[in-house]
């Protein structure tokens, strides 16, 4: 029973690491003072439209406040006044790069490199961005993220809150080692993503994702968990024209999970993912999938094969960008698990959740990248088909999960981020065997590539 609780917690954490709250783009966040300076620079530019210093000040403020188009307009006007400005061509190339207009960015960067007596720092930066553009224009693209951190849990083994549990309908006392126990541990994850542009008008691409996760407890080795998962399939647009932002991605998936360094189950399956931009700031992603779980008997779990079965699940996620710094999200989940033998382990799962992500200017180091605070709350309801006679033949297992998470992301640069998070997982059930709570705190560093 503890294994099932452990697996559920792993998926919850892995979702936070791999998917988590919908991430907001790490663009510069302007302060009220910067907005005031931006307005002043704009008014001065209107009074002196041919003054290069004035144009450059406005371009700088526009870039810092996120008005990339305004910055581009001012810099291009500077080139009309004086074409012999390689640094301006470099900055235009960088701005178009940030907008994703790689062909235009390439033109400006290439022109900067052809300037006679080009300063070494301008040449180095232009060559770096040109190399990045060539990489992005390659039909085969790799990206990923590595995370490593430390985590404390008040109930690392997800044991019951009390030693008084039910056994064959009677009250029994658990061994103290099976009751909830606190512990520290290390957590690591690796996410790899590969896309290959198929060169079709519907922007079809083959997408493959690989996830690896592992946790090692300092004391409770039986709670060590490792996971590998691979998913691949083509993504393509369903319609053209006004409905062009509707995509489908059929996929197949395989995975393996270990608990206490022993195989827990291997799985394979498939499904379909649909994405649609409902409104200008509202996006929905829905995934329907099934997985076949193969549980082997091991030295650690000699009756593990009883849990062999098939999982059916569906999730839908709505993300709404309320403002440039605030994103709201809501999720819904439905699932069904059917075993081959242990019918008392068949269950239905329903869940809803929501939260927000909020960006704000760096309050300590005054770096240009903003900090992000994300808060989420999830509620899940489980209902099993039949009583487990080893627990209580007269009571069907039911349980309700309440999961609260709060995280702060502090970027060191565009690739490296420190994350500090905390949360609470509370499971209530009329059967004390399954009721527990677990408070956790985690900190770690991620690196994107």
Question: How would you describe what is shown here?
Answer:
With 449 residues, the chain is α+β, with helices and mostly antiparallel strands. The protein has 7 helices and 16 strands. The strands form 2 sheets. Strands 1-4-5-6-7-8-9-10-11-12-13-14-15-16 form a 14-stranded antiparallel beta barrel. Strands 2-3 form a two-stranded antiparallel sheet. The N terminus is likely disordered.
Ordered list of secondary-structure elements with their pairings:
Elements: H1 2-19, H2 32-47, H3 52-64, H4 68-81, H5 86-99, H6 102-113, H7 120-136, E1 140-153, E2 164-167, E3 170-173, E4 183-197, E5 205-217, E6 225-237, E7 246-259, E8 262-277, E9 282-294, E10 309-321, E11 326-339, E12 347-360, E13 371-384, E14 398-411, E15 416-428, E16 436-448
Antiparallel strand pairs: 1-4, 1-16, 2-3, 4-5, 5-6, 6-7, 7-8, 8-9, 9-10, 10-11, 11-12, 12-13, 13-14, 14-15, 15-16
Helix pairs in contact: 2-3, 3-4, 4-5, 5-6, 5-7, 6-7
Content of β-strand: 35-45%
Poorly predicted residue ranges: 1-27
How much is the radius of gyration in Å? 27 Å
What about the largest sheet? 14 strands, antiparallel, barrel
The coarse overall form would be elongated
Helical proportion, percent range: 10-25%
Distance between the termini: 39 Å
The assigned structural class equals: alpha+beta
Number of helices: 7
Q: What's the count of strands?
A: 16
Order of helices and strands: HHHHHHHEEEEEEEEEEEEEEEE
Oligomer: single chain
Q: Going across the major beta sheet, what is the strand order?
A: 1-4-5-6-7-8-9-10-11-12-13-14-15-16
Integer average pLDDT: 89
């Amino acid at each position: 029973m503890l294994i099932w609780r452990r697996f559920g917690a792993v998926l919850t954490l892995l979702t936070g690491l791999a998917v988590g709250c919908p991430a907001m783009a790490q663009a510069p966040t302007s302060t009220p003072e910067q907005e005031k300076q931006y307005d002043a620079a704009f008014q001065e530019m209107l009074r002196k439209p041919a003054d290069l210093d004035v144009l450059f000040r406005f371009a700088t403020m526009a870039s810092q406040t996120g008005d990339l188009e305004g910055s581009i307009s001012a810099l291009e006007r500077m080139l009309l006044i004086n074409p012999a400005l390689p640094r301006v061509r470099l900055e235009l190339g960088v701005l178009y790069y940030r907008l994703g207009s790689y062909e235009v960015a390439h033109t400006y960067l290439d022109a900067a490199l052809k300037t006679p007596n080009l300063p070494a720092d301008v040449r180095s930066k232009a060559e770096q961005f040109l190399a990045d553009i060539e990489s992005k224009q390659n039909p085969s693209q790799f990206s990923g993220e590595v995370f490593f951190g430390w985590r404390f849990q008040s109930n690392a083994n997800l044991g019951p809150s009390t030693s008084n549990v039910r056994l064959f309908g009677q009250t029994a006392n658990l061994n103290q080692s099976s009751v909830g126990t606190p512990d520290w541990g290390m957590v690591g994850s690796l996410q790899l993503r590969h896309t290959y542009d198929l060169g079709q008008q519907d922007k079809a691409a083959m997408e493959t994702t690989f996830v690896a996760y592992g946790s090692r407890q300092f004391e409770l080795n039986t709670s060590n968990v490792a996971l590998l998962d691979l998913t691949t399939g083509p993504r393509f647009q369903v319609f053209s024209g006004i409905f062009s932002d509707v995509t489908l991605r059929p996929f197949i998936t395989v995975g393996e999970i270990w608990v206490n360094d022993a195989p827990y189950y291997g799985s394979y399956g498939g499904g379909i993912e649909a994405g649609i931009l409902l409104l200008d700031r509202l996006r929905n992603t829905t995934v329907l999938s099934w997985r076949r779980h193969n549980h082997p008997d091991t030295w650690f779990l000699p009756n593990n094969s009883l849990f062999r079965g098939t999982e059916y699940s569906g999730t839908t996620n709505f993300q709404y960008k309320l403002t440039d710094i605030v994103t709201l999200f809501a999720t819904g989940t439905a699932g069904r698990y059917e075993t081959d033998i242990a019918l008392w382990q068949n269950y239905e799962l329903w869940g809803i959740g929501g939260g927000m992500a909020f960006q704000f200017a760096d309050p300590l180091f005054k770096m240009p990248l903003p900090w992000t605070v994300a808060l989420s709350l999830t509620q899940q309801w489980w209902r099993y088909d039949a009583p487990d006679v080893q627990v209580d033949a007269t009571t069907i297992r039911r349980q309700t999960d309440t999961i609260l998470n709060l995280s702060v992301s502090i970027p060191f640069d565009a690739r490296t981020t420190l994350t500090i998070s905390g949360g609470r997982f509370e499971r209530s059930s009329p059967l004390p065997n399954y009721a527990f709570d677990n408070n956790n705190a985690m900190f770690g560093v991620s690196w994107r590539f």
